[in-house]
Amino acid sequence: MIEQHIDFYQQDANSNVRSVRLPTIFIREYQSQRFDSPLPTVSSICTLPIVMPGGEILSGHRLDRARGILFKVDATLDAMLPRIEACTEDAVAAATAFLTGEWLVDVQGDYTTRMKLVALACTVLERHLFPARPGFLITSSQRGDGKTTALNMLSIAAVGSERPGATWGFETEERRKALLAHLSQGLALLAYDNLPAER
Description:
The protein has 6 helices and 9 strands; from the N terminus they run E-E-H-E-E-E-E-E-H-H-H-H-E-H-E. It is an alpha/beta fold. The protein folds into 2 domains: 9-81, no CATH class; 88-192, no CATH class. The N and C termini lie far apart (47 Å).
């Protein structure tokens, strides 16, 4: 990757120049000193726009150096984003009505429940800005109420695939290992199904 941007060359006694591979020792030194490097650091890659609290939309195909986010948003999606001035109170009300009344129309629950599910989806979309990720508990009085279906709907809308699921381990050490493995994958969303009430 370095050699795609910098040409390292060797010159012989006759002033002939040829490109050469960067010696491994320099790669190791760079890797060991990367936290002090003046080069920008990428902490995450984002393929969807992010809406900031003030209404600013982060998108495009660029590196946000201040936040360490590499944006790779499809140009077609980028072109569909509304301008800030178009996000009036009426537009926000219409969008909210669509999310709760059409997108989540099959979810059993009242308006407040559906808004909480919208909030869950938003935390997935905005995850690159969070220092820590929130957790949500989705409960119902009986099995088959559609909890897993609702999570799949949110996951497909936010990341394009059904949510990955996991089993809650009862042994602390096994649960710790599983959590480390899941976190190492950088999952956008992880669901633990059927947690016992006493846990």
